[in-house]
Amino acid sequence: MREIIEIPIDDAKPERFDVLKTQGIPFGNDLPEKVKTLLKRAIDLFLEFSQPLGIVSDISIPEFGSVYHGEGLNEKENPLDKIFKKADNLALFAITIGEKVSKKIDQLFKKNEFALGSMLDSVASAGTDKAVDIVENHFLNLLSNKGEITPSKGMLRYSPGYCGWHVSGQKKLFEFSHPEDIGITLLDSFLMKPLKSISGVMVIGEKEIFKFEDSYPFCDQCKTHSCRDRIRALFRESRPDNKKGVV
Ligand code: SF4
What we know:
Layout: E1 2-6, H1 9-12, H2 16-22, H3 33-49, E2 53-58, H4 61-69, H5 79-83, E3 89-96, H6 100-110, H7 114-145, E4 153-158, H8 169-177, E5 185-186, E6 192-193, E7 197-206, H9 226-236
Antiparallel strand pairs: 1-2, 2-3, 3-7, 4-7, 5-6
Helix pairs in contact: 2-7, 3-7, 4-8, 6-7
The structure holds iron/sulfur cluster.
Iron/sulfur cluster binds at residues 79, 163, 214, 216, 218-219, 222, 225-227, 247.
């Protein structure tokens, strides 16, 4: 299965709470009027300039083994290497909200409209995350309709450049799933263009397979240890669609 998913822009509109969190602003009734106005303008620009699209391709464990090996630069020991071999389903994904919104952000900074540019950047990042959630839910629903999802199962996603999966892994990921078809290209640096794009693998399996200790050598440099929250959240929810960001 390989599917291109057109994501309605209103569905990708991020929650105000998620945007303000990335700006380090606490959400509440006492939000200054200036911030409320900026946020509204940024969300309006997001709705005007974003074109969210996703692509999802299921992939077998041996096929993903080859994608994952990539250019041979992964950390020798890392969590995904153990997890994907125990998965029930794997799917490569890529999503983008398009180039126009990045150009608008650049324009605002060039015109010295830093506050609005920065707010739009946060809205676009939160909207990109939300678009991934929509693609994930779409894939989960497909599996659910086939009776392949049970309460003991969970889903987490992983991306090249994180947790021991070297960023050069993007090369093989692109060769397999061709995100070019939704307008994403891979630069020599392995960054994606448009910048507001996310790619990786969705892993579905028994929740137990996702447990690991955050004691890999590279975890010492990790500022967030976000894997802890995500694994905890997986066990709090009965439905495996409770995930946020990448491990
Ligand atoms: S501690 Fe950080 S680097 Fe280590 S696995 Fe968790 S999220 Fe990844």
